């Protein structure tokens, strides 16, 4: 549970936003009540006839009343058909969809919570998330149905608690569809009335259980309150002055009636809060793309005249280097935000050469801070290169140094954040919560410097988590899986830099006796391939050992048995470089 922040003293240096005070945040509204049923002084006026959501593939649109009505219809079904209770959990297992927000709003109206899973998960990975959150119902897209059904049945969910988000191609499927449920419910003689939260209740009422690896270990579920989501949307609204019509057009971001793109995964907190919820509040039309395909992405920008892009660094790499880019008209793009991982100054320069008139800025945040901590300032066309931006209103930051003191401007330390949007903690993991959530503050695990100009630079990660294409990958998860392989005696997984993915997993493996026999027979490459396949067969694509596999005599460890990953990171980079050079030689000979 979050407690009040400690009072700053003269011995503790704190950094605060220079972009205004924290806005007024309602503490008695649920997320759908805030977005659909009420107004706020910071909310800009949406142009008449401007759709809220647009489906990229079909062009179908949903406006405010359609979303509001359907959310009530779903809430009614959850309450009267499935008897879902307050604080119980509904799971979503789907690629991006215009129905994603409707499911969230419907579930939230009855006081239940959402857990959203990566649609590329294996049945075992989805089962883990369903078990951890004790989900009572599963909303699944037809493309993920087989995995969803297997996981649901494994945790004891009956087929009548599996809901297809869209109709499946196979009409014989025994599962009810979302449209059927909503249509039936809207005919119900007893209309659903959602409960008004008590003053302050939104601060503790859980809206989402978002998956995060935290500072170390296997994925954890982060409890995010209704208040956290509303707070972060309003903090960003104040930072970007979305309500201020006096902001010059060339500086204005997220103009009401313009089109923003939702291609980042909606199950991820960046794609959910920063993109969908924040853009809806800004009065933008959110174009929903189910799955990223680069040329299709470019075609959608051109077709729908997209004004705002939310991306991760690998997408910028493609925009700058892929030959298809020049075939599309991207002149509608006015602003571009990059998050989830740092963007180098070199790559930023290439992007500005490609799109010289855009407002380009970076952002930084965590699931545990739900979400954004800093963004590039509005008064700059291009944020400071290499910077993650500046603190948004309502944020207080400290830099905790190894000696326990707090650093000032220009000094380096672990970034510690206090924000009204901070999450409540990890569920079923009191120890991890105690280590990360301290007296209302969140220890980010990231080493940072905040300079005299208020720019925040993330310089290193204390935590062991890798960021692969913006997704968190816990080495411990992959190591635990690999240790079940008969070819592996011991293993250490580290991240290695990758131009496209930011970094990718690389495994140092101590071969078992069985594997060693094969290696002695000259089958070392085969053994490496078998080990990589063992991960590929069980884990999501971004968790695969794309960096490579290297044999090692022993994993370096300290006296207490903790792996010394830092000693292997440089060796991993050298091994990765050798693999890439050998691959280039092979290509040259072809």
TrEMBL record:
Lineage: Eukaryota, Fungi, Dikarya, Basidiomycota, Agaricomycotina
Every AMP-dependent synthetase/ligase domain range: 49-426
Annotated InterPro entries: AMP-bd_C, AMP-bd_C_sf, AMP-dep_synth/lig_dom, ANL_N_sf
Bilayer-spanning residue ranges: 267-292
Keywords: Ligase, Membrane, Transmembrane, Transmembrane helix
SUPFAM superfamilies: Acetyl-CoA synthetase-like
UniProt keyword Phosphoprotein present: no
One Pfam family cited in the UniProt record for this chain: AMP-binding
Entry GO MF terms: CoA-ligase activity
Gene source species: Thelephora terrestris
Domain of life (superkingdom): Eukaryota
AMP-binding enzyme C-terminal domain location: 477-562
Matches recorded under Gene3D superfamilies: 3.30.300.30, N-terminal domain of ligase-like
Protein name as annotated: Amp dependent CoA ligase
Sections of the chain in a coiled coil: none
């Amino acid at each position: 549970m979050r407690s009040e922040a400690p009072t700053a003293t003269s011995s503790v240096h704190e950094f605060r936003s220079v972009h205004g005070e924290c806005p007024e945040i309602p503490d008695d509204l649920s997320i759908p009540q805030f977005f659909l049923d009420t107004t706020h002084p910071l909310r800009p006026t949406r142009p008449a006839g401007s759709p809220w959501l647009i489906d990229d593939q079909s062009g179908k649109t949903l406006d405010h009343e359609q979303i509001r009505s359907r959310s009530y219809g779903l809430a009614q079904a959850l309450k009267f058909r499935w008897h879902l209770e307050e604080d119980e959990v509904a799971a979503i297992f789907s690629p991006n969809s215009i129905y994603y927000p409707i499911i969230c709003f419907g579930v939230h109206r009855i006081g239940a919570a959402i857990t959203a899973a990566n649609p590329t998960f294996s049945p075992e990975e989805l089962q883990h998330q369903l078990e951890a959150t004790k989900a009572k119902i599963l909303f699944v897209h037809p493309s993920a149905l087989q995995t969803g059904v297997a996981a649901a049945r494994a945790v004891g969910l009956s087929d009548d608690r599996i809901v297809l988000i869209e109709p499946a191609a196979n009409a014989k499927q025994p599962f009810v569809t979302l449209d059927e449920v909503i249509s039936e419910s809207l005919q119900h003689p007893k209309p659903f009335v959602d409960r008004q939260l008590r003053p302050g209740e939104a601060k503790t009422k859980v809206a989402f259980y978002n998956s995060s690896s935290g500072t170390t270990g296997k994925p954890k579920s982060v409890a995010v309150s209704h208040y956290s989501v509303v707070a972060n949307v309003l903090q960003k609204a104040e930072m970007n002055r979305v309500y201020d019509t006096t902001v010059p057009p060339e500086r204005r971001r997220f103009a009401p009636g313009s089109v923003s793109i939702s291609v980042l995964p909606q199950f991820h907190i960046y794609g959910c809060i920063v993109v969908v919820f924040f853009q809806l509040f800004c009065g933008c039309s959110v174009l929903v793309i189910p799955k990223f395909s680069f040329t299709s992405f470019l075609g959608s920008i051109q077709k729908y005249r997209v004004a705002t892009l939310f991306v991760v660094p690998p997408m910028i790499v493609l925009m700058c280097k892929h030959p298809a880019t020049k075939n599309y008209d991207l002149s509608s793009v006015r602003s571009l935000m990059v998050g989830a991982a740092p963007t180098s100054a070199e790559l930023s320069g290439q992007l500005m050469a490609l799109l010289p008139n855009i407002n380009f800025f970076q952002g930084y945040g965590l699931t545990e801070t739900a979400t954004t901590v800093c963004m590039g300032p509005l008064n700059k066309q291009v944020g400071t290169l290499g910077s993650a931006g500046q603190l948004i209103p309502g944020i207080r930051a400290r830099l905790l140094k190894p000696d326990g003191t707090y650093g000032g401007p220009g000094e380096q330390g672990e970034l510690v954040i206090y924000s009204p949007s901070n999450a409540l903690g990890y569920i079923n993991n009191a120890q991890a919560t105690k280590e990360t959530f301290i007296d209302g503050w969140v220890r980010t695990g990231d080493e940072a410097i905040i300079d005299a100009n208020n720019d925040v630079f993330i310089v290193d990660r204390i935590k062991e988590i890798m960021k692969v294409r913006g997704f968190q990958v816990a080495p411990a998860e992959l190591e635990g899986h690999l240790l079940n392989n008969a070819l592996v005696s011991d293993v250490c997984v580290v991240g290695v830099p990758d131009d496209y993915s930011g970094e990718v997993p690389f495994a140092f493996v101590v071969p078992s006796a069985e594997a060693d026999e094969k290696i002695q027979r000259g089958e070392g490459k085969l053994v490496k391939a078998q080990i990589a396949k063992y991960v590929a067969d069980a884990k999501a694509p971004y968790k695969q050992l794309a960096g490579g596999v290297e044999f090692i005599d022993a994993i370096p460890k300290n006296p207490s048995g903790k792996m010394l990953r830092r000693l292997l990171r440089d060796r991993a980079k050298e091994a990765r470089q050798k693999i890439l050079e050998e691959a280039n030689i092979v290509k040259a000979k072809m």
